[in-house]
Amino acid sequence: MSDSDCESLENAVCINHFCQCNGSKFCEEKLQTKVTKLGENCKIEADCNIKHSVCEDGKCKCEDGRVGSTDVRTCLKVADGLGSDCEDRVQCFTKIPHTICKNEKCACQEKTHQFNGTCFEDIALGQKCNHPGECTITPFAKCMDGECICKEGYVPNSAATKCLEIANRINDPCYEDIQCITKFGPAICKQGFCMCEDMYKFKLAKGICIRDILLDEACQFNTDCKSIDQESRLECILGKCKCRSEYVEKLGSCTSSAAYILEHTMLVIFLSIMHIHVFQ
């Protein structure tokens, strides 16, 4: 025992494990104040008529590991983390900000989400952020230079609500054109796969979509030249796309020599017949 065990008596001290009057004839029992609300004045611990409370600095407070309830009449155990049992929201947010007590369990409040055992505000792509956890409401997003953006290898969708994976190869699966355009340039997402736009073809050496070069346009290699809607009948001659030797140019396209000769012969015959009829 110690002197503190004799606090309930006036002028009492602890001598040989017994409370005795300290030079006074009488040791009267102190009048105690029964404090029933946290934060109210107290002199000794016995004044605080609240379970798990102590008298500290002249005020009734909860002991370590406990927190005052909303009505400041009960000392409740501080929750260990999300999912812990609770009666009052103060048990949750004392240790974890942005939390509530929902269905007797600690959970993140509205417009917040859980990340690594903590609740963070929901911050969308393109909005200002202060912590990496705020951006995790969007998968594959991060906080960089104070703004939520997509991680490397991902791009925002058209609505800026998702981070979509950038296609690495032509014909890779996709949802939106931006997944294809980012790496291949003039490309589109067609029927769920990346492909070059019309009049463009994929150049493996450069890894991008390059526009087809048509008849009479400048070129460097035969592979630069392509005919419209057919197997290429062009080749690069002196820096320009021209019809290959087995084709002849007609009305801006390359026609088979045999077909051209037949067509020309039929035209000559037709004109000859018309000439005969005119002079008969």
Automatic annotation (TrEMBL):
It comes from the Eukaryota. InterPro entries: EB_dom (IPR006149). Residues 108-158, 205-254 form the EB domain. It holds the Pfam family EB. Transmembrane segments: none annotated. PANTHER family: ECDYSONE-INDUCIBLE GENE E1, ISOFORM A, FI17111P1. This is EB domain-containing protein. It comes from Ceutorhynchus assimilis.
